[in-house]
Amino acid sequence: MLVTAYNGREPTKQPAELTWLHSPLIIPLGYYFLVESVRAVMEWKYASHPKACLYTVSQMFFFAAILFLMFMTDFFGLL
Question: What parts of the sequence cross the membrane (predicted)?
Answer without folding.
Answer: 20-41, 53-72
